[in-house]
Amino acid sequence: MNPGDLLLQSFHAAVAAADPLKIVAGHLPEPPAGRTLVVGAGKAAASMARAVELAWPQGAPLSGRVITRYAHGLPTDRITVVEAGHPVPDEAGERAAAQILTEAAGLGQDDLLLALVSGGGSSLLSLPVDAVPMADLKTVTRQLLASGAPIQEMNVVRKHLSRIQGGRLAQATHARACALVISDVAGDDVSAIASGPCAPDPSTYADAIEVLARRDVAPPASIAQHLARGLRGEVSETPKPGDALFARVDNRLIATAHGSLEAAAEVFRAHGVTPVILGDTVTGEARDVAQVMAALVREIRSHGTPFAPPVALISGGECTVTLREGAQPAGRGGRCSEFLLALLDALGDCPNVWAIAADTDGIDGVESNAGALISPDSAERARSLSLDARDSLARHDAWFFFSALGDLVVTGPTRTNVNDYRAILIS
């Protein structure tokens, strides 16, 4: 098989391993004596809701509301799907989150709250505290995104500005709660995935303030004032581990990045290539991670260690891209394509090396591609088009670079999300 096609096949296998329509049914709880309210948020919310409808007994009461990203909806019968803003929250998500909180609060002890949680939910399930206007939540979200803060740090801040995240959804209901969780977070910490609406939150107001300071973010006054009040104990903390309310809450992790990496590894193994899973928690600045990967590739190419070709180096996790001052004119692209551009710059005309980096949700940053591919002739083809990888990298313009080469990976929304997928094939 052509190496590029093999990389694409491995990516599709990784996505399929986290497809809600294939995995949700096996994790559903038994219907309660009362009614079941389905709520949720994330890039996988619509497909998870559809999977619940297909598997739920027809005679059992079922209703609800989930929030997903624009263009990620699906037709449903009993569960309303709302589309809203991501990665920056908007008023559509705020209205739907308020409705979800009200409906959850109306459940009784014989009812079930079934929460469908997936990556992207932190933005989509945005219901700021009364003291913080949505406009200010948007501002601090943009500031954190530009700062290069990893998702865990961003969510520490967001949980302490929310009426529904950080365990507050579970806190708001009297019903038994079951959360089905698809992880897009390194380490699969359910308190960080979609900011943990049904999970105990170990972080504090002090932690949120420290994140903003470390990332050199000066938030709007309403946010600074609210966090300061929380630090002084004037507003309540998020519910913590050990809180009695979580005795009636079951958080079930149903798909992870590592499970997807294992599915991809089987594709390589079936084609005579040794798969090496480097881990599902590979994080850091995209260009720095690329430098480390390039050094490993050169070692394998030159000395056959620590792995002998043919080998596929597979990794997952979420890199970050810090927008640097002077990166003008501003380019287009996401963390996956930036990683690949940095890898190409570091490898140059290295023979017999192919690579893919793509987001399993089908969207790299805010672009329409999932990611991109590189091949041994990428650098040569770029030169023939007067493209310079280093110059494009300085402008964060990976999308244009790979678009000009015809090497973007375009899938459309996959309606799942287990973070980024990277594979480097050395033949």
Rg is: 22 Å
**How large is the share of residues in beta strands?**
15-25%
Number of strands: 14
Strand order of the largest sheet: 3-2-1-4-5-6
Let me know the average pLDDT. 95
Estimate the global geometry from the Cα principal axes.
globular
How is the quaternary structure best described?
A: single chain
Structural class: alpha/beta
Question: In words, what does this structure look like?
Answer:
The chain is of the alpha/beta class and 427 residues long. It is built from 16 helices and 14 strands. The strands form three sheets. The protein has a six-stranded parallel beta sheet with strand order 3-2-1-4-5-6, sandwiched between helices. Helix 3 links the parallel strand 1 and strand 2. Helix 12 (286-303) packs parallel to helix 13 (335-347). The chain starts with a helix and ends with a strand.
